Structure formats: structure tokens, C-alpha cells
Amino acid sequence: MKTKYALLVLPLAAAAFFLMGRMSAENHAQLNPKTAENLSNAMHGEAFAYVKYMLYADHARESGNEQLAELFTANANTERFEHFAEEAELAGLVGSDADNLRDAIKGETWEFEHMYADYAAQAREAGDTAVAARFEEIRQDEGRHRDAFQGALDKLQQKPASEGAN
User: Fold this and answer.
1) pLDDT-based confidence at 128, cuts 50/70/90?
2) Which of 54, 77, 94 is the last residue of a domain?
3) Residue 149, exposed/middle/buried by CB under 10 A (0-12, 13-18, 19+)?
4) What's the longest Cα–Cα distance across the chain?
5) pTM as predicted
């Protein structure tokens, strides 16, 4: 189930990192700021729709409605593999492996140190203890993600340039 969850969350995480300002300098300089903002918002919407539709498909499948599950899955895949992917290409979202790792580390660090810590504290203050506990659990996951990405970056940087620091 965690693998399935990770596959669903990946596009949403990518959009979140993008919303925190990730665009290649080359493409960012070429795009009008409003166009860049619109791309970011569109990508966020496409990623969220993908994850939501996949969850709807899971529910339909669990309810015994395979035809509805297939409808949700087909549309989710269009949102992710066509719309999001095309917008990401236009925005210059993906860079070199090292750049992608640095960006992932930045995003995971922000989620670990700020976003989920703040959300958990606010939920606790509001008396929403179950939500606070979940935010704290996710916060710890984000710290492990950051550490794994950092380990991969360290390993990548130890390789000779000809072997893949692209």
C-alpha cells in the first residue's frame, strides 16, 4: 500500500516543489512571470486531479465497480502522463540528476522543518489530535526522504563526471 501511495503522491510532490519556486533558470528567464505562475497552478491542479482520481478508482474497485474504476484510472493517466508531463516540459521542471536531487532535498527539507511541523502544531492547538499525529508521522517520512535524496546526491557526486553527474 505504501508503494501505491508513493506512486500517487509523486506528481503531487513534484507540483508542490515546483510551487516553491523550482524552474530552470533558462526557462524561467524565457517565460513571462504570469505564464510561469499559470503553469505552476495548472501543474498543481493536474497533479491533484491525478491523485484524487486514482483514489476514486481504488474506491470504485473496492465497491465492485470495475468499469467506473477504469474510467477514473484512464482520466487520471491523461492528467498525469499528458497534461502534467507536457506542462512540466514547458516549465523546465526536470534538470540534471544532481539538480533534481538538490531540488528534492530542498523540498523535503522545507516540508520536514517548516510545513508539517507548523501544520502539526496548528492541528494540536485546534484540538485535532488525529490530524496532528498524522502530520507528525508524515513529517518524519519527509525527513527520511530528504536523507535518502542526500545520500543519493553524495553518491552521485563521488562518481567521475563521465559516469552520471548529469
Assistant:
1) very high
2) 94
3) buried
4) 54
5) 0.74
